[in-house]
Design a protein that fits this description.
Elements lengths: L2 H12 L3 H5 L5 E5 L4 H12 L1 H4 L3 E6 L7 H9 L4 E5 L18 E4 L6 H6 L1 H19 L6 E5 L30 H21 L3 E6 L2 E2 L10 H10 L4 E3 L6 E2 L2 E2 H14 L3 E5 L6 E2 H16 L5 E3 L14 E2 L4 H6 L8 H17 L5
Parallel strand pairs: 1-2, 1-4, 2-3, 4-5, 5-6, 6-11, 7-10, 8-13, 9-14
Antiparallel strand pairs: 9-12
Helix pairs in contact: 1-3, 1-10, 7-8, 9-11, 9-13, 11-13
Length: 365
């Protein structure tokens, strides 16, 4: 296993209390979107620590619309008695036909394309996963003894907040366009949250909603076309970093190990609520992020290029793109004891170190 990934998985476990880890004893965990960016960390975490957590089964479902990554087969071979992976469209296929799905104690619904480049390419698929996929899961599990159901919403539901609502609290209602290139993702996430609220209220389901804020790190595809992946690809291939905007928009970037710890706490919360999961500081511009990548590349890989500005060939690349995105995590800190600790520069170094090790082992071109 990649040394950075191993350290990350141990770090995630260390962020969970003893009371939280014991809740997994004897559990079957079902993950939709298991082959995606966050699915990568979830799947590796549960396989790596299954015995310590006492997990009996792990079920991974994915359409593999963007391809079946090699690590999926590797995990299957490593723990065939634990892990079952199926090519499955949660918006259309019968969940009851999946072996042991009816025994699931915990559901993680992460089946949705999250990269703007790809959800604009597959808008209906994206909408279906967030609406019909979610509805099928809720209908199937509403009468069963679930311990936790995690729905991945998004910080995109807030749209482009005004300065008075940054940092953005969970109570902010959003400034979102219902028509446009991002609407298939943003609005289906908002409607998904409505469904979660109603099913939790009507059937007492233990549904918790997570709203991710700009996660990055191992598991992110280099062709993801979001900025952290684009910049990492430039470093790895020793090419100039290319910025396809003014570089002024700002974000807070949360390293994936901190994010996964937060999502697991959401999953184990066991009751309806919604939480921002991310890191509050620093708020970094795209230009500043490029500089951090450049310094990390120089340190780790002898990177010797600069930063170029150009324009995307995708005419919708910047349409409805928020100018600032920064959460307040006071609620998650208070109720979940969620406390991210990995600063953006350290996270970028870890991400690049992971990729360099993968390349040296011949796992990527």
């Amino acid at each position: 296993m990649n040394s950075v990934l191993r350290q990350d998985l141990d770090y995630i476990l260390s962020k969970l209390s003893k009371d939280e880890t014991t809740k997994f004893a004897g559990a079957t965990v079902l993950i939709t979107g298991c082959a995606g960016f966050l699915g990568f960390s979830f799947m590796h975490f549960f396989v790596q620590h299954a015995r310590r957590l006492g997990i009996e089964r792990l079920i991974g479902l994915d359409t593999f619309i963007l391809g079946r990554p090699p690590w999926v087969e590797q995990l299957e071979k490593e723990r065939p008695e634990l892990l079952t992976v199926r090519s499955f469209d949660v918006s259309k296929d019968e969940i009851g036909a999946v072996p042991n799905a009816n025994k699931a104690s915990y559901i993680i619904h992460g089946a949705s394309i999250a990269s703007p480049t790809f959800y604009r390419r597959y808008p209906i698929v994206t909408l279906d996963a967030n609406i019909w996929g979610l509805r099928h899961l809720l209908d199937f599990y509403k009468g069963q003894a679930l311990k936790g159901f995690l729905f991945f919403s998004s910080s995109e539901i807030y749209g482009d907040p005004d300065d008075q609502n940054i940092p953005t609290p969970e109570e902010y209602r959003g400034n979102v366009a219902c028509v446009g290139p991002r609407a298939c993702y943003d609005e289906s996430k908002r409607f998904g949250e409505t469904m979660c609220y109603l099913f939790a209220k009507e059937y007492g389901m233990p549904i918790t909603v997570a709203r991710p804020f700009n996660n990055f790190g191992p598991g992110m595809r280099l062709d993801d076309r979001r900025v952290p992946a684009d910049f990492a690809q430039c470093i790895l291939h020793n090419k100039p970093i290319e910025i396809l905007s003014s570089g002024r928009p700002t974000r807070t970037f949360c390293y994936v190990a901190d994010a996964i710890a937060g999502y697991l706490k959401c999953l184990l919360h066991g009751q309806y609520d919604s939480f921002n999961i991310g890191i509050e500081t620093p708020e970094v511009s795209v230009v500043e992020l490029a500089s951090i990548y450049k310094r990390a590349g120089e340190k780790l890989a002898g990177y010797a290029h600069g930063v170029n500005f150009s324009k995307s060939d995708d005419r919708d690349y910047l349409t409805h793109n928020p100018n600032r995105r920064c959460p307040t995590i006071k609620k998650a800190r208070k109720l979940l004891k969620y406390e991210p600790e990995i600063p953006v520069d350290a996270g970028i170094e870890r991400f690049l170190a992971f990729l360099i090790e993968e390349k040296e082992k011949g796992y990527m071109q």
